[in-house]
Amino acid sequence: MYLSEKEINEFIKGLGLKFDGEIAQGQDTEKEQIESKISSDLLAQNQPYDSQLEISANELTFDHKCPIGSGQFGTVLKATFKRPEPSLTVAVKTAKPNLNAQYLRTLLKEVKIMMYVGQHPKIVGLLGCCTANLRKGELFLVLEYCENGSLEKFLKANRARFVNIVEKGILHAEKCAASDYLKILLGLELPTPLQSDSTDIFDIYRLITWSIEIAEGMEYLATKKVVHGDLSARNVLVTADGKAKVADFGLSRTIYHYTHYAKNGREPLPWRWMALESLKNSSFSTASDVWSFGVLMWEIFTLAEQPYPGVSSLTSNFVQNLEQGLRPTFPPFATSEIYNIMSCCWDEDPKRRPLFSRLLCSLMEIQSECREKTSRRPSSDSDYFE
């Protein structure tokens, strides 16, 4: 479980590579050319650890009765961070004791990648680290806490509260309850969180909003040249006020090779979300993230159904079917325009897939068009009900 002294020093001081100086001294166009040749992972790992992130384990009070998640290599616990006034609820990720040092190395790389990415309102943020006992194999990542958990679980738990106002790919606003629908339509209040003890309802506008928020987060990652590699509803978290944030970015592709995982059975391969070139050649890029985003949108507009439900496992036949045009079917709660956006994400040629900036614009246009279509609403609330 223990790291070498060289690994610890490289984490604290950075790799010591000199291309940062070359970038700083070059002209603007030269900087872009140099940066384009350097991977985001290398730029991230070359950074020295930011000591301002360091917090003491004594400043954390763990809630061991309520673990957020636990995997083969690590655990995520809910905790209270005492330093802010008032105190702050956080999520703390740590490696399980007595494991191979490789997972600890993964956490160190995650710290550097999150430092490199920085803060963004649609990205789960790094708040601090506990590295004092790093030589003893102990490391805590203190992360932003998202009260409503993963988007996948959130959608499944709230299916009964969803009001469908789409029929055969066409929006029918008159089917939505006026009291909630008009608030969303007129922007009188943001979508509220759907708690387990709540009777709130939601509809397509909330689904579009989540899609936009995730696209905003992914557009930002793309500007930083960070490839997520495992974008799905289970890796998007929902805050207390109902906003979607991208989590667990930049690790699946850069730290472990998917093929390595598949061969050793150490982690299920997320093949249902993977682009064709990722399955065939283990090629990951922003374009492959766009493919995954399309599948994630499909999850959202089916309320977290499993993609390719008729396919039980990854086979060469499945990959061949993708090459021949197999794609996720039309979701029941999407309009035709929304499904067209998904379909563009699944172009066999990565170069023909839209950029996240384009996807974001398209989704915002659809949101605006939906509002225009429903602006000629009935004169009284009672007219909304058939």
TrEMBL record:
Single GO MF descriptor: ATP binding
SUPFAM superfamilies xref list: Protein kinase-like (PK-like)
Domain spans labelled Protein kinase: 62-366
Swiss-Prot/TrEMBL keywords: ATP-binding, Kinase, Magnesium, Membrane, Metal-binding, Nucleotide-binding, Transferase, Tyrosine-protein kinase
UniProt source species: Orchesella cincta
Gene Ontology cellular component list: endomembrane system; plasma membrane; receptor complex
Descriptive protein name: Tyrosine-protein kinase transforming protein kit
Binding residue positions for Mg(2+): 235, 248
